[in-house]
C-alpha cells in the first residue's frame, strides 16, 4: 500500500464548491482597494506637479553643453558661443590639484573655443614671432578672451587679467573638452612626439604633469578616477561601434522585421500543429546546440593543428583586447564555447528524459493556448499598447530626471591655487569680484563658475525628489505591466469558461477585460505594483551601496550586502510570481488584491506538483521557442555579416566589428520573440489556473461538466490512471 504524502486540502483552504451560475469572469463586480486607488491617483498628480516644477526650474542645456568660467554654454545656438562647442582650459596644469575632486572645479580660466590647439606654443614665443609674422598672433588669439587685441601686453599683466593662456599644447576634443593629445611610443608617453615642454612661465615641464592634470579633470567630469588613456581607448572603440551601426542599421532592421514575421507565423502555426511544432522546437534546439558543439570542436581542432598558430596561446596571455576577433583565433576560446554548449545540451536532454510525461500535458496546455489566441487574435497586438505606455513612462522619468539634475542658478566660487587661502571655495559674484580684497589676500584667485544649485527648500531636496521620481517611475512601470497581465488574463479566462467554444465566448473579450481592469481594479493593480516597486527600490539602493563598497576592505559589510542582494532578488521574483497569479484571480472573480493573492496561493499549493512541473515545463518550452527563433535569425545574421552567403556578398556593409550588428540582431530578436511569447505565457498561466479551478469545481458529470477541452481531459485521465496504477 502506497504511503499517503498529500497535504490535506483544508490546510491550504477549501476548494471552491460547484456553482451552476458561474460562467467565467464575473461581470457584476465592485471597485476594489479604493484607498490604494486614491493614493495612486494622488501620486500621479504629484508626479505631474513634480515634472512641472522641474520643467520650470530646470534647463537641459546645463547637462548637454559644457559651461565656461562665466556660466555661458559652449555650442548653444543663438549665443555668441554658437560656433564654439568645446571647452578650453587656460592652464590645465593647475587641474592637477587634489582639491579639484573635492570642489569639482579646476582653478583656471575656462573658455569656449571652436577647435583645440594643434601645436605647442607659449605667449612669450608668440610675442617674439609676432614681430616677424602676424599669423602667430592670429592663431594664438583664438584661445584668448574675446575682445583682447593687445599682443604686446606683458605676460604678468595678461595672467593677472586672465586675458590669454601662458601656453597651449596639442589637444583633441573629448567629452567636449580639450585634452592633451597623448600618444604612447615604445612605452613612453608623448604629446606631439615630445616628452617635455615649456609652460610659458620659464619652467620646463614633463608630459606626465599633463597626464596627471587630465586625469583629475576626467575624474571630475566622469565621477571616477579612471585615466585619460583608457577613456580615449574607449572613445575610439565607441566611434567604431557607432560607425558600424550607421553602416548596418538597415540590415539590422530587416533582421528584426524577419523575427517579427517568424514569431507571428510561429504562434499562428501552433493553433494547427502545436504538438508537431513543439516537438520540432525541442529537437531543433537540440540540433542547433549540437551543431554548435561540432563547429566549436572543428575550430578547436583546426587551431590546435596549426604548427605555428595560436593553439598554445591562452586568453590570459593576450589580456583584454578591443578587437574581439582576436579571441576567435585562440583554441581555448572555442574549447570554452564547446564545454558550455555541451553542458546546455546535457541539461536539456536530461530534463526531457525525466519529464517526458509532463511534457505531453504541457503540450496539451500549449495547444489549448494556441486555440484561445486563435479565437482572440487581438491579444497578440496588446503588447503594442504596453510598449507605448512603457515608452511614455520611461520618457517622462528621463526628462524629469534631466530637468531636476539641471535645476538651479549658476553658483560661482573662489578658486585659488594657494592651499591656505581663507576665501577658497566661498561663493562670489563675478561682476563685483574685482572690487573685493580677495585677489590681494589670495593672489591669483578667480571667481569661476562651480555648479548649478541654490539655497531654497526645493534645491536642498533635489536628491530626495530624484528618489521620488525613481520610485513613482517603478510604480508606473509595474502598474502598466500589471494592467496588461490582468487584461490578458480576463480575455483568456472568458475563453476557458465558455462551455461551447467558440459560440459562448463573449464579443470583444479583450476590450471588455481592459475596461473591467481599469474601472474596477485600478486600486488592486496599484497595490500589487507598489509592493513590487518598493522591493525594486531597495534592490537599487543595495546595488548603489555595493558599488560604493567595492573598494572597501570591510569583508563583513560586503558579505552582508551580498546576502541582502540575494534575499531581495528572491523576494522580487516571488512577488512577481504571486502578483501574476493574483491578477488572474482578480480578472476572474473581481476580488481585492489580498484576497485574490491568498486564493491564488492556496489554489497553487493544492496543486503544487502541477505548478512545479507543468508550469515550468511550459515556460521551458516557450523559452526554447524564443531561443530557436532568435538563434535561427542570429545564425542567418552571422552568415550574412561574415560574408558567407555568396549570393549577397556584395550587399554586406563594411564593418569594424561584425559582432556589433550581430549581437544587436540576436538581442533584438529575443526581445521581439519574448513580446509575442509573453502573451502566450500569460495565456497558458491563465488556462492553468482555470484548469485547476475546473478540477475542483466540477467532476465531469452531466450536472457538473468540465470546461476544459476533450483533448486536455483525455491526457488528464491518463495521468490520473497512471497515478492510481503506481499507488496500487
Automatic annotation (TrEMBL):
Protein purpose: Choline transporter.
Protein name as annotated: Choline transporter-like protein
Domain of life according to the entry: Eukaryota
GO terms for MF: antiporter activity
Pfam family, one: Choline_transpo
Assigned keywords, A-Z: Antiport, Cell membrane, Glycoprotein, Membrane, Transmembrane, Transmembrane helix, Transport
Topological relation to the membrane, as annotated: Multi-pass membrane protein
GO terms under cellular component: plasma membrane
Chain ranges passing through the membrane: 34-56, 249-269, 276-294, 334-355, 375-399, 472-497, 518-535, 555-575, 620-641, 657-677
Keyword S-adenosyl-L-methionine found: no
Organism, scientific name: Hucho hucho
Catalysed reaction, written as an equation: choline(out) + n H(+)(in) = choline(in) + n H(+)(out)
Coiled-coil boundaries: none
InterPro entries reported in the protein's UniProt record: Choline_transptr-like
Similarity comment text for this entry: Belongs to the CTL (choline transporter-like) family.
Compartments, as annotated in UniProt: Cell membrane
Amino acid at each position: 500500500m502506497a504511503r499517503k504524502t498529500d497535504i490535506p486540502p483544508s490546510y491550504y483552504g477549501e476548494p471552491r464548491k460547484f456553482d451552476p451560475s458561474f460562467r467565467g469572469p464575473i461581470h457584476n463586480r465592485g471597485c476594489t482597494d479604493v484607498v490604494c486607488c486614491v493614493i495612486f491617483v494622488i501620486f500621479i498628480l504629484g508626479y505631474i506637479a513634480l515634472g512641472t516644477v522641474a520643467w520650470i526650474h530646470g534647463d537641459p542645456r546645463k547637462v548637454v553643453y559644457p559651461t565656461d568660467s562665466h556660466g555661458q554654454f559652449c555650442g548653444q545656438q543663438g549665443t555668441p558661443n554658437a560656433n564654439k562647442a568645446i571647452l578650453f582650459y587656460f592652464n590645465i596644469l593647475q587641474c592637477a590639484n587634489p582639491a579639484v575632486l573635492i570642489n569639482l572645479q579646476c582653478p583656471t580660466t575656462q573658455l569656449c573655443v571652436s577647435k583645440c590647439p594643434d601645436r605647442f606654443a607659449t605667449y612669450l614665443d608668440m610675442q617674439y614671432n609676432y614681430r616677424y609674422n602676424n599669423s602667430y598672433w592670429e592663431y594664438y588669439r583664438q584661445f584668448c578672451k574675446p575682445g583682447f587685441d593687445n599682443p604686446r601686453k606683458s605676460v604678468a599683466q595678461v595672467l593677472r587679467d586672465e586675458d590669454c593662456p601662458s601656453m597651449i599644447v596639442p589637444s583633441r576634443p573629448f567629452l567636449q573638452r580639450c585634452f592633451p593629445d597623448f600618444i604612447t611610443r615604445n612605452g613612453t608617453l608623448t604629446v606631439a612626439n615630445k616628452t617635455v615642454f615649456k609652460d610659458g612661465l620659464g619652467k620646463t615641464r614633463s608630459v606626465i604633469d599633463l597626464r596627471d592634470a587630465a586625469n583629475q579633470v576626467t575624474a571630475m567630469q566622469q565621477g571616477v578616477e579612471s585615466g585619460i588613456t583608457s577613456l580615449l581607448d574607449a572613445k575610439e572603440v565607441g566611434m567604431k561601434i557607432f560607425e558600424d551601426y550607421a553602416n548596418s542599421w538597415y540590415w539590422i532592421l530587416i533582421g528584426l522585421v524577419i523575427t517579427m514575421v517568424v514569431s507571428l507565423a510561429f504562434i499562428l502555426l501552433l493553433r494547427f500543429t502545436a504538438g508537431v511544432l513543439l516537438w520540432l522546437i525541442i529537437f531543433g534546439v537540440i540540433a542547433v546546440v549540437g551543431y554548435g558543439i561540432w563547429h566549436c570542436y572543428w575550430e578547436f581542432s583546426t587551431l590546435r593543428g596549426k604548427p605555428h598558430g595560436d593553439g598554445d596561446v591562452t586568453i590570459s596571455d593576450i589580456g583584454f583586447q578591443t578587437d574581439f576577433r582576436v579571441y576567435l583565433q585562440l583554441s581555448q576560446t572555442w574549447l570554452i564555447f564547446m564545454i558550455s554548449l555541451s553542458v546546455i545540451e546535457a541539461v536539456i536532454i536530461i530534463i526531457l528524459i525525466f519529464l517526458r510525461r509532463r511534457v505531453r500535458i504541457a503540450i496539451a496546455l500549449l495547444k489549448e493556448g494556441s486555440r484561445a489566441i486563435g479565437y482572440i487574435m487581438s491579444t497578440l497586438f496588446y503588447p503594442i499598447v504596453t510598449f507605448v505606455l512603457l515608452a511614455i513612462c520611461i520618457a517622462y522619468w528621463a526628462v524629469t530626471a534631466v530637468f531636476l539634475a539641471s535645476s538651479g542658478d549658476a553658483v560661482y566660487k573662489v578658486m585659488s591655487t594657494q592651499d591656505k587661502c581663507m576665501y577658497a571655495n566661498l561663493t562670489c559674484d563675478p561682476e563685483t569680484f574685482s572690487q573685493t580684497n580677495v585677489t590681494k589676500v589670495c593672489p591669483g584667485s578667480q571667481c569661476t563658475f562651480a555648479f548649478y544649485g541654490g539655497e531654497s527648500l526645493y534645491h536642498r531636496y533635489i536628491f530626495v525628489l530624484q528618489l521620488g521620481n525613481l520610485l513613482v517611475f517603478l510604480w508606473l512601470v509595474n502598474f502598466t505591466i500589471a494592467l496588461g497581465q490582468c487584461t490578458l488574463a480576463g480575455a483568456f479566462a472568458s475563453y476557458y469558461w465558455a462551455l461551447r467554444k467558440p459560440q459562448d465566448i463573449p464579443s470583444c473579450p479583450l476590450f471588455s477585460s481592459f475596461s473591467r481592469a481599469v474601472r474596477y481594479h485600478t486600486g488592486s493593480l496599484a497595490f500589487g505594483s507598489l509592493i513590487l516597486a518598493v522591493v525594486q527600490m531597495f534592490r537599487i539602493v543595495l546595488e548603489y551601496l555595493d558599488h560604493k563598497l567595492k573598494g572597501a576592505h570591510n569583508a563583513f559589510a560586503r558579505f552582508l550586502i551580498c546576502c541582502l542582494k540575494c534575499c531581495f532578488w528572491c523576494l522580487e521574483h516571488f512577488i512577481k510570481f504571486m502578483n501574476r497569479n493574483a491578477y488572474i484571480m482578480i480578472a476572474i472573480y473581481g476580488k481585492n488584491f489580498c484576497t485574490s493573492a491568498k486564493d491564488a496561493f492556496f489554489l497553487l499549493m493544492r496543486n503544487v506538483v502541477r505548478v512545479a512541473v507543468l508550469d515550468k515545463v511550459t515556460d521551458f518550452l516557450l523559452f526554447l521557442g524564443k531561443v530557436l527563433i532568435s538563434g535561427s535569425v542570429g545564425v542567418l545574421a552571422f552568415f550574412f555579416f561574415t560574408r558567407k552567403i555568396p549570393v549577397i556578398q556584395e550587399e554586406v556593409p563594411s564593418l569594424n566589428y561584425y559582432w556589433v550588428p550581430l549581437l544587436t540582431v540576436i538581442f533584438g530578436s529575443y526581445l521581439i520573440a519574448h513580446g509575442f511569447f509573453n502573451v502566450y505565457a500569460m495565456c497558458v498561466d491563465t488556462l492553468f489556473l482555470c484548469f485547476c479551478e475546473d478540477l475542483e469545481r466540477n467532476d465531469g458529470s452531466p450536472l457538473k461538466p468540465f470546461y476544459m477541452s476533450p483533448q486536455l481531459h483525455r491526457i488528464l485521465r491518463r495521468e490520473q490512471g497512471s497515478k492510481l496504477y503506481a499507488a496500487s
